[in-house]
Structures are given as C-alpha cells and as structure tokens.
Automatic annotation (TrEMBL):
One Pfam short name: Methyltransf_21
Source species, domain of life: Bacteria
Organism listed in the record: Pseudochryseolinea flava
SUPFAM superfamilies: S-adenosyl-L-methionine-dependent methyltransferases
Residues annotated as domain Methyltransferase FkbM: 68-236
Name of the protein described by the UniProt record: Methyltransferase FkbM domain-containing protein
C-alpha cells in the first residue's frame, strides 16, 4: 500500500484522492485516513527515541493529562495511546489542514479521551499568523514565529491563539506530561503554561532547534529565556539522545547538530524517579 501511495504521489494523483491506509505504532495497528497528500507522514517511521521516552514516562503519570502542544498530524498521539489507550490527552494544533486529519484519525480508530483544540498557545487569547508551505498543507515546519526562519513565499493563515488562563477555565485536570513541538514558539508556550508547570510539575518534552551560530541572536535569546524560566521553576535539563537515553546538561548553548534538538525538563522532585527508570541517566548533583 505504501508503495502505491508513493507512486500516486509521484504522479501528482494523490491530491485528488481520499484513502485509508494502515500503520502499526508500538504493536498497535491504526487506520490512517489520507486527505490527498495530507496525513502521508503518518505512514513513515516514528521517531524511536520518542516512543522510548513515552514508554517510560506514561506509566509514571497514570491518571494525569498528557498535553500535546503542536500535534501536527498526530504522530505522538498515536504513539502515546499505543502505550496507554486510557490516557487523557489534550492537544493543540493551529493548522486547520492538520486538524481535519486529527479529527478523522480519532474517529476512524475510535480513540477515546482525546480533546483537540484548533489553536496555538500564547500569552493571551487572540489571533496569530501561521506561516506554512504552499505545497504541503500539513507542513511540519509551519510556525507562528515570523523571524524564526525565512517565511518568504510561505502561505499565511490567520489562526486563533488561546491562553493558559482560558485552558484552565475549561477544566484541564492535573498535567503529567507536556510535549512541545512548535517550531520556534517554545518559550511562548512555556511562559503561557508556567502556572501549570509550577503547580503540577509535569515532565516537559520539548524540541528546541539549533541556533547554528552565535550570529543567530534571535534563537539564542529565546532559548535562553526558556532555560531561565524552567530553571526558575526548579527544573533540570536532559538532552534526549537518538537512542532514547538521557544526558544531563546545564545549558543548551549554541550548536549545529539537528539530532540534539530534543530535551526533557524534569522538576527537582522527579529527578529520583527519572534516575530509576532511565538506566543510562547519570546522577544529577
């Protein structure tokens, strides 16, 4: 089936079709609805390090909410639900094309306890501009941060932004994990969620893309703000290696290694738990 889809895509025929394929995540088979090319990424290989992290963290947060900020087309949702189908899951995704796939994905597979909020997360309720590829509607690099990367030639969509205060008003429950993959808006999400972070002490899985050079002061300043905010809340930083093991670090710094873009922030009260469930974690002093 995957070969057929690739052939149809190469012939530019896939965009005219709505199909359903299948994919196994962590031993669980899911139906994958495709809306033209949108959703095709669900059939690719899922990041093994993420699945390794989820297998270890999710049992530790039973009864708590998993918050996914930047759902894209639901890769993390499927992986997390394959670990614990009863996990309470709250996701945010501002890209309307992705939201269509997410809703169909939930319906096709009868996935329970999932709430999808079609919005970005910010300091206040309002609207933002989402910059995405004109050729890839479910663009995984779409961003609401104008200067994070070159946005020339990108399609611009006006999308809603929701504040954590509003989220709390709809009844969030106690949060166990926050996963953040928002292409440059990480610090905005962390600052918006800080009241919840300080109250619930969730594990925070966050992608922070490299600054690449000292000249990229925009990225450097934003990542420094994020690190300071998390340290101020009593958190330690671990770099997630491609093997799924953790490396304790004091700062993110300036680097150019794309594989070193994923981090786990752990509150001081959870350090001992992390050291016990990750056999390759070095003790943090």
């Amino acid at each position: 089936m995957l070969l057929l889809l690739r052939i149809l895509n190469k012939l530019n025929l896939l965009s005219f079709l709505n199909l359903t394929s299948g994919k196994v995540y962590n031993g669980v088979r899911y139906s994958i609805p495709l809306h033209g090319r949108t959703g095709l990424g669900l059939l690719g290989d899922f990041e093994p390090w993420m699945l390794s992290i989820l297998r270890k963290l999710i049992p530790e947060v039973k009864g708590k909410v998993f918050v996914d900020v930047g759902m894209n087309i639901g890769q993390t949702m499927l992986a997390a639900k394959s670990v614990d189908s009863g996990l309470a899951y709250l996701g945010f995704e501002p890209n309307p094309s992705c939201v269509v796939i997410l809703k169909r994905l939930v319906e096709c597979n009868n996935i329970r306890d999932v709430k999808i909020i079609p919005a970005a997360v910010g300091a206040s309720d309002g609207v933002s501009v989402l910059y995405r590829s004109k050729n890839q509607m479910d663009d995984g690099e779409a961003t609401i941060i104008q200067h994070f990367r070159d946005t020339a030639g990108k399609e611009q969509l006006i999308v809603p932004t929701i504040s954590t205060k509003t989220i709390q008003n709809i009844g969030l429950g106690k949060v166990g994990v926050i996963k953040i993959d928002v292409e440059g808006a990480e610090v905005d999400v962390v600052e918006a969620f800080m009241p919840i972070i300080e109250k619930d002490h969730p594990y925070v899985i966050c992608e922070i893309l490299p600054a690449y050079s000292n000249q990229n002061t925009f990225r450097i300043e934003r990542q420094q703000r994020l690190v300071m905010a998390m340290k101020g809340a009593g958190y330690k930083i671990f770099r997630i290696e491609t093997t799924g093991s953790l490396k304790p670090i004091d700062d993110i710094g300036v680097h150019d290694v794309l594989d070193d873009s994923n981090y786990l922030f752990v509150s001081d009260e959870n350090i001992k738990t992390i050291e016990s469930i990750f056999s390759r974690v070095t003790s943090v002093k």
